[in-house]
């Protein structure tokens, strides 16, 4: 049986760890990102999802991959996390974040769902900020709330097709995205790990294992999974 993972943003972080996990489980790996994926045997399609027409260059290739898959897992993982606020967020910057984080996933859905067979899955990467807000990242929060909506719509619109969906919402995970936001300041790191009940960052492999569980278990259809090691609320 031909099993395929199409992942966006697998060049690093959670997407890369997930590609590793699925490859170990016998999946063919196809990654969509600007940089390549450094993983033997994985296939790379270089795209910049911020471009409105990004799908044009690879639609034919993706269609052929999906047609040949007996079981396809589509993981919407690529994202952009800007520092901004509702007081200063400009429409064009907001559109760009929504294009990568929310519109590109739907572009892939529209292309690939017609080819997806029963047993396939569409998984979305949310965040703790999918269901709550903090100050200073309005566009990201809006997009991550939206991704839960898209997952729930997926579950409702694909009734009877044997394709399940879930949204995995990580907490503070040790990736380039988080390190880029925190910088090198040990005090900032301590303040972050200080609000995690286990006192540490999540390893990307732990999120990959959660994604694997959601892919392998259709009973998760429609679920929002909070994978955050228990954030302490103050
Ligand atoms: N890390 C955390 O603490 C955390 C917490 C909650 C939720 N999440 C979510 O988990 C997912 C993965 O996050 P991460 O921490 O692994 O992020 P990351 O290390 O920054 O990786 C992001 C991935 O997205 C790709 N990407 C970004 N912009 C792109 C573009 N314009 N076109 C194509 N690909 C693009 C990047 O690839 P290229 O640069 O090669 O294009 C990269 O592979 C995201 O949806 C994020 O919101 C992460």
Automatic annotation (TrEMBL):
**Keyword S-adenosyl-L-methionine attached:** no
Specify the domain of life of the species encoding this protein: Bacteria
Transmembrane feature ranges: none
Q: Which UniProt keywords apply?
A: Oxidoreductase
Coiled coil located at which positions?
none
InterPro entries reported for this sequence? NAD(P)-bd_dom_sf, SDR_DHRS6-like, SDR_fam
* Family named by the database record: Belongs to the short-chain dehydrogenases/reductases (SDR) family.
Q: What is the protein's given name?
A: SDR family NAD(P)-dependent oxidoreductase
């Amino acid at each position: 049986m031909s099993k395929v993972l199409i992942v966006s943003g697998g060049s690093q972080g959670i997407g890369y760890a997930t590609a590793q996990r699925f490859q170990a489980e016998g999946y063919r790996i196809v990654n969509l990102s600007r940089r390549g994926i450094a993983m033997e045997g994985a296939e790379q399609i270089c795209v910049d999802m911020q471009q409105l027409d990004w799908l044009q260059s690879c639609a034919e290739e993706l269609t052929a991959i999906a047609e040949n898959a007996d079981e396809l897992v589509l993981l919407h993982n690529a994202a952009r996390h800007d520092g901004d606020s509702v007081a200063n967020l400009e429409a064009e910057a907001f559109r760009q974040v929504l294009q990568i984080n929310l519109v590109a996933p739907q572009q892939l859905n529209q292309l690939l769902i017609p080819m997806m067979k029963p047993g396939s899955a569409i998984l979305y990467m949310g965040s703790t900020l999918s269901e709550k807000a903090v100050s200073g990242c309005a566009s990201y929060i809006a997009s991550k709330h939206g991704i839960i909506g898209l997952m729930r719509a997926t579950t409702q619109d694909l009734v009877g097709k044997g394709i399940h969906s879930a949204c995995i919402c990580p907490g503070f995970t040790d990736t380039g995205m988080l390190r880029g936001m925190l910088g090198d300041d040990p005090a900032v790191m301590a303040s972050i790990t200080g609000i995690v009940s286990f006192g540490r960052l999540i390893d990307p492999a732990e999120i990959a294992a959660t994604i694997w569980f959601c892919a392998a278990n259709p009973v998760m259809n429609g679920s929002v999974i909070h994978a955050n090691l228990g954030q302490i609320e103050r």
